[in-house]
Fold these 3 entries.
Entry 1:
Amino acid sequence: MLRVLPAVFLILAQASVLPAATIADSAVFNIIKRADPTLITQKILYRNQVAPDLDLVIAIGSPAEWALRPDSTMITWSEKQELGLFLQERASPDTVYLLALTPGFLDCEARIERATSTDTVISCTGEKAYQGPNQKFVYDVRAKALVSHFEYRPFPMMRVFTESGAKSGGAVFVGSDTKRLVGVEFKPNGSPEFRILGDAEATPWVGRVGTAQEWIGRSQILYAVPDDTTPVHFGPSGALTFTTKQGIVDNRGKGYPLPQSTFDDFAKARSLRVKDNYVRENTIIYETIGPTQTDGDKLWFGKTFYDGEGNSGVGGFGYFDASDRQYHLFTPSELADCSVSAIRAEPDAVWLGIAQMGEYNGSPRGVLRYDRQTGTVRKYDLPDAVYDLASSGDRILAVTSSGIAVIEGGRVKRYFVDRTTDGRLRVVDAAP
């Protein structure tokens, strides 16, 4: 149940109660304990100035049996833990305004997607990467009051199209909230650069994404059908074909299986995994071709493998060259523990979305850039799963589980589809 207390609290924080907390943090903690005495441990999740005289503070309180770990970056927001939004006077930190204090959900790993002077959006990810509804709080800083709290389904992006049909240098993303498809146009240097396409404008793009529906309980779910079932033809006159079931086969039916890492390769590349009892006699190494991209006579690909329950592999990428009918593999150490979820081969570099594919689905591990001249690797941290990659000028565009990420000049900027209080969709900046 949402708890809103519009009154201002004037509490002088005592450093002796929470010796590790600042005076400002302790004042917020006291508000949480006053609102619900069972929340005996508290943690500040976010603090930022939103007005000349005010900070926005986001904090969480927890009962004793759900103690918060001060060193953990994970935010477990359960039904017994309450997340609060506060405004705090900068010149007088003992003056704190409570906007909202609300319990979480049965299965929610929370993340602050956006926190501004007008609104905050919290996402919830559950077991096996299940995405719960986003929680949105809209407030009036001048009135120091909550205006609205509602939830909406997030829009993970699923595809990106950069063919000639998109405007020069631009792209169109297609995503779904499990109820409908939406098209998002990217127009470089536009104002704004991202916009939601109208239904008529989006039709040519969403029509290129295969979908299916199924019932889960009483809800009908719309999801995208993976396009990896479509055969990929490459080489002279399309002499070679790749499918996920058969791998690479030529037009005479000869197969070219992906070379597998040996256990010695595995032990050398992943010594820590060996210490987890992944020893020679009970480890099954099985690697497959994952995401692909054609480049003339070459088929670029990333390796994938299940990393759990005695199964494993060594991460890598490479290409199969139709001219010599050989695999050319690269196994940088930065990729050893991960599968490749997306690949983009450019003349100067190969970009890779990576994830650790374990028992509870994939854990995102960011994006790697492999320099094709020097062999050096640079990692870009990204908290979202990466489904596809495209290029636009000097930018790399990532299709992600939260929306869109843009890599440019060594920086990563994230965006997502947000819903306004009147139901309109818009694309907004996400927290770094």
Note: The CA atoms of residues 115 and 121 lie 7 Å apart.
Entry 2:
Amino acid sequence: MIVMVILLLPLFAALLVCLHFGKFWAAGVTAVSSLATLILSGRVAWLVSAGNPATLGLEPAWSKWIAVDGFSALILLLIALIATTAAIYSIGCMAHGNLQQRKLRLYYANYNLFVFSMLAIPVLAEPTLVWILVELTTLCSALLVSFENTREALEAAWKYVVLSLMGAGMALFGFLVLYAAMQASGSNAAYTWNGLIAAAPTMPPVLLQTAFLLILIGLGTKVGLVPMHTWLPDAHSQAPSPVCALLSGIETSAILYVILRLFPVMQASPGTHAETWAIVLGLISVGTAAFLLLQVRDYKRMFAFSTVEHMGIILTAVGLGAAAADYGAMQQIVSHAVTKSFCFFAAGAVLLGTETRQISKVRGLMRKSPVAGAALVFGGLAIAGAPPLAVFLSEFSILKAGLTQKYYVATGLLAIFIVIAFFGIMLHINRMVFGPEEQGAAPEHLLDMPGIAGKTRLPISCRLALLLACVPVLVLGVYIPRPLQELLTQAAAAITK
């Protein structure tokens, strides 16, 4: 019953924000709905980590449609968490632009629909329904990407839609082939994730591998895997900063969740080589993103390329095939979600003051705005993998597991690419935060943030979101609470059945 309430909350909020009851009505409704969703998602995660069924109260017939295990509970919790901090950040970020109330209501309606589409992905058990929800995320988020209605934003949105829908067609064909493989096996199991695992040993390997490759490439387009990643930097640089936090922080991981659900199916059938494909595609993504990070010119695009890198790291970790690597992959999903959302909040803080996304036009940020400068440095160090922060711990776990499994070449390449990405990110951030101002710059108009007399301060809600978002980045680098640790263990087990 809790799961149904979680799904209904953002839908109800999307309807309520269309009503006009004051300037902050839509923002308030969205924040309250997101917070309630987070509390209920936390309750679901707690139940699952303790070994209790989260679907208690639902009729048995619903088991064909809704199922929650450790992996889905983890993704559900992360979606709710990032949606809550992004909703808080949106209050000040959207108010800063003095937008018309009609446009604000449209933003929050699309925001809630986007959150709903993501929340439904991990709790649905039927793969074809999951595909429908994946495409709903495309439609809802495309409207958010194009929200600013500039030429660049509209071009990014169209590119996003066209490439994502091309991938969607390929993924749909993959799911149809998967269904045909299940029918050919003669199994009477339902067409669910668990049903596929049960039927996998008797499925024709050729059909199973074909389905996997089609789904991997099709949904890999939405995840941002190379070479299907070309839409991602454009969309993530043009969308409003809280939307970027959702897109980069958790939407990519929610879609990757669907791909990872196929690995226990593939492992149950000999000769499918799913792990090999994962390692190859993952390393290509990490390596390409690492070198692109060296030459990027837009700091929001920089964090977008970092997302491509981290999706590749997760896929590579799963391809290593060890339980420890799978646990590290789950850690990486969590650490990337909380860290990347913080990074885009920090980038949004800089953008609110500088009104430019160009790295070359931002210099001496720490002197002009200690808040934005410190947030950007912290976010850069965190997402690049500096100790003792969350990403460092998960990446160390993955590299350790790779060496234990004797994947020396893959692990060595992964380590090299991670180091290149680290230096690429910190090189740009160092210039932005500590670099000298260029000749001819006009520092008096650069920032309107804390520390500059007579200028507008960074909105309180944005500062609050930054504060809330940095807590898990710090804590998860040194301590993992026992319930979360149990949830990570269950999530890792879900993709190694």
Note: The chain has 20 helices and no strands.
Entry 3:
Amino acid sequence: MVEAGLLVLAFAVGRLTGIPPLSHLRLDLSGLAAGLLAVFPLVGALLWCLRSSWPPIVRLVELVEAEVAPLFRGIGPGGLALLAALAGLGEEALFRGVVQPWLAGLLSPWPAVALTGLAFGMLHPVSLAYTVLAGLAGAYFGALVVLTGNLLVPVVAHAGYDLVALLVLARLKPAGTAVVVQQTPSSTSATPRHRLFGGSMTRTAAHAPGTFSWADLGTPDPAAAKRFYTGVFGWGFEDRPISGGEYYTIFEVGGKSVAALYGQMADQRAAGVPPHWLSYVSVESADRSAARAGELGGTVLAPAFDVMEAGRMAVIQDPTGGILAVWEPRAHPGAGLLGEPGALCWNELCTRDPARAGEFYGDLFNWGRETMPMPGFEYTVFKRGEQPAGGCMAIQPEWGEMPPHWDVYFAVEDCDACASGAAGLGGTVIKAPADIPGVGRFAVLRDPQGAIFSVLQAAAPTP
């Protein structure tokens, strides 16, 4: 273990220099208290890094999440606490217990603090930003020794910060979480929970054809979007490498996959494709569904193609302009959770020609249609058998030049709190929380990169 090795190295270097590494360590309550207080500025810096949009820090956070966090998977809180304690003691014993006093003997205390911090940073070459931040942290720890005369203070501060950082990484990368639910012969049906927006809340490992089963976000800034959505919904996530050094990030709730995001390609950004959520409908054959969409007057934007071993998909546009994907599942059947807080609960087409769209999707997915009167307009519910599959409504004149699109809804426990939290994280509340009689309370939000989504708090079930 590297941390324990550093403590051994500290004693070896101390013997060579004649400086006992723990000679300035005093075990007293004042030192412990000072060390605990010294953790707070470090945690503040960590939070700043996690929320920063400055490109070097964004890249650093992505690098740590992708390459450093996996090293600690499978380690529980007790193990993380032990690692943090060993790191605090080992690194401080070596750098602030031996190296800094040795340099102070040659120079003076404050130049020794600066040089030891520089050396500390250079021994953390994860990236230039990481080296700079580690160097500043090293200088901070060195200053604590000079100001208090007690090595216990930086040991506690260092260990305390490391523990917080490791716990944050563990939260973002849940140990032992298999995010994608694998289909097995014994797990091919959904178990209804209770009704939401006319449908069912389900925990599922497969989806019947004609079911909205997945949604993913194309965004120009995956790291910032990841921080936003995990903050809004409390999602965990797992980054899965794809081509070109990019990642497909799968979000999860309680170990069940619920949605994903990916970085938009340069050609998409150059063509002016805005950040957007894409809805997926499960089908038996992506090829047949794409061909049928063309026959019905739709446009096949992306012919059927394999997504590694996960499945096969195509992207289609209906005759009125709405875009969605059809998904032929293989290893990845789709969302492992629907309708519960943090998961997809509804998909809704906003179009200028609901009747034409209804004919298209009815023929394509064998959906029935049921109309519902709403104040000022008529709402269409698409139905798969007796189960609601999605919704459709006309774009209202007051909405302006809104293009036809499929909106995604995520279930939440408190619509108002979610909207407020999204705004606090840099999002925009497009439609303030409002009630839909008999359905619940909803809001329309926009993330900081520009993608629009909705949230829905289900109405309490009637007796």
Note: Residues 172-204 have pLDDT under 50 and may be disordered.
